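User: I'll paste a sequence; please echo it back and then give the predicted structure.

Assistant: Echoing your sequence first, then the prediction.
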Amino acid sequence: MNPNPKPPPRIKLTPKKYKELCSQVWGRDRGICQICYRDTIVPHYHHVIFRSQGGGDTIDNMLILCNQCHHIIHHGPRHSAEYRQRAVERMGELNGNANKM
């Protein structure tokens, strides 16, 4: 068994479809960071399961984050694992299956 299996191929969205998806995420999250619950001036659309790890461009895999929280998740030396876990838990809450992720 391959210890590093390739993620399944992603369906690449057209810019128009991606914009529609971001609009749906915005409508659901109401422009509020789903980690710290502050209003976002410039939203960052975060993939809970990274696309590089097989996560899709779907509403059930994306959250709005503020710049600070998004930076911490991807680049923060401290608390980044905690923030990633919070994002996973929040995504589960939004999808109605908090204990399944």
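The helical segments are 15-29, 67-75, 80-94. Strands lie at 44-47, 62-65.
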